[in-house]
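Dear colleague,

Thank you for sharing your sequence with our group. We've completed the structure prediction you requested, and as agreed, I am returning the results in plain text so they can be pasted directly into your records. Please verify that the sequence below matches your submission; if there's any discrepancy, let me know and we will rerun it promptly.
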Amino acid sequence: MKRYFLFISFLIIILTSCRTTVKTADNNDKNPLDSVSTSAPPEKTEKIISLEEFRNSNIDFNILSQNQQNQLIDSMILKMNRDEKIGQLFILAVRHTANGQPAYETDDYIKAFMDRYLPGGIILFSINYKNPDQTRTMIQDLQDYSPYPLFVTTDEEGGKVSRLGKTKGMEVVSLPPASELAAHGSAELTEFAASVLAADMRDLGFNMDMAPVADLRHKGSHDIIGTRSFGTDPELSAEMTVSFVKGLQDGGISSVLKHFPGHGNVSGDSHDGAVTSLSSSKEFSEREFTSFRSGIAAGADFVLTAHIAAPALSGDSTPASLSPVIQTEILRGQLGFQGLIITDAMDMGAIKSLYSPEEASLNAILAGTDIILMPEHIPSAQQSIREALQDGRLSEDRLNLSLKRIIKLKFQKGMFNSNYDYIKKISITDKTKLHEVLETRLKTE
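Please find the predicted structure tokens below.
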């Protein structure tokens, strides 16, 4: 009997031990200690996307992680040779072809121009426009020929600065001057007007507009900007600037806030020679910067720097387009602008009367500029960048900083995707309806 009880006791111990072992291994065990892991969870690894996969799969760049975006941007820059990198820093005009004839097509002369300078963008003028079909073909051919997508732009502010709207037969809305738009007092109307313009521009193949003018108007002897400005009231000007930016950019056209730090209160016309702003530091901060701040907050892709000295800001007579204080400390630092800084046209009197093409271009980049617009002499301007990279005055890191901004924006706009349409066609019927609606609203509101 004693042996029997010993046997039963031993069996109970064995069964209890086995039961405990099974329960511990059970994933449904409710003991909270069982869920505590003594080892770190495996790290998630993000998929590396190649440029080829990105292009062929038409991936939306804007939904990628920051690391994936940076990897694509870096990969694109690594593909570029030195001359291609330098070329991205320039937006150039192609007014004429061989024998001084107007450039209406991407002929062999224009192709040789593109091969030599490898620009990151092209600006067209009234002289380039014959009719809509000709303009579309020229722009599409430029894009097809360029090794990298181009910014294609023009000056289309409305009023007297309307390269397309004032060219007969181009089927582009001719907007009233900014001052007249602002006089309606309707931000929604201004946004609608800009959206109609954006549709017309995309219909031709443009992706960038040198507008809006964010300068505050100063009436009197120093009223150089005039009706190109939204007016003298900082708050109204800021509201209209935001609306114009939204109308353009929602329609696929990059906007350009100009002419930073403010061209309204100046001593002359920078097209002709050296110009100085008469505004104080307080006036800049409280008035001149208002529209620029608002336009930046609205997401403007570009800010264009003026060829005006602003001693109240910089402490010297250096034009804003060449001033590190105005560009890097104020525009980047104080106003927080993270987009692309572009100069005003570098063949204007305020620059070429004081600086060589080499000095102007290099100083602009060193000051913080990303894109140089229309240098007086292209070979000299590009060579100055090339030599500065070789002798160390311009670092590769500084060059890449601008390249990353340029390439990033082109990625964001979808320009590296295989399904990107450089031309977004709109039927003449729809275009006519939009123009009629806008015309009616401008007359009645």
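Summary note from our side: The radius of gyration is 29 Å.

Kind regards,
the structure core
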